[in-house]
Amino acid sequence: MRVKVLGCSGGIGGILRTTGFLLDHDILIDAGTGVGDLSIEQLLKIDHIFVTHSHLDHIASIPLLADTVFGMREQPVIIYATRETWQILKEHIFNWKVWPDFSVIPNETNPLLVWKEIRVGEAVMLGERKITPLPANHVVPAVGFHLQGKSASLVFTGDTTTCDALWPQVNSINNLKYLIIETAFCNAERELARMAKHLCPSLLIEELSKMQLKPHIYITHLKPGEDEMIMGEIERDACDFNARRLYNHHIFEL
Asked: What is the pLDDT of residue 149?
């Protein structure tokens, strides 16, 4: 399994793109603004989209992708999301007011978008690729994902704050090689991070202290304008974890 980072910022501007990962050529994990950098030919190859949660920075490209490939595909695009997340997308995005409902067009028996429900702990197998939803703690229903390839595993936490339920599942992954974890705010905004259910460096340290394994750690979802400050605090206070900043176009081989 080849995982390419399409976007990993908490915002946009210049080279910044919001969250999205391309697995091989046919799977997206979240679909933020970085998906827009793919060519139409690449977009046509996307058959599966796994969604951590309903916030715009993680789903912005799904409506636009649907509109772009409509009429050029014979098979639907499968959206994997929790029941709660799909209901939010149906009510607030694919509602004919914000965007056409591609889950019923061109017709209800042959729609472009087809939803499949996912649940924490229940793996989805796509060939030899195994994708398992993990617990997350955010202001809307959310999950992370465990991506398991032939030789290694990667965990992407999605957007989350402190989440005790996550770490027993992470610690059970024998071949965990990479952990991608968010840190959206600096320490001065710790209370805002708690309220928004994100992490800041001090909360990140508390979470990583629950981990018994030693994967390579990458930090995602940094707030634009505060990214250098956040990484400086992580490098100063969490140096034992050797966490690195995630960048667009980084590739992980699993």
From this structure: 94
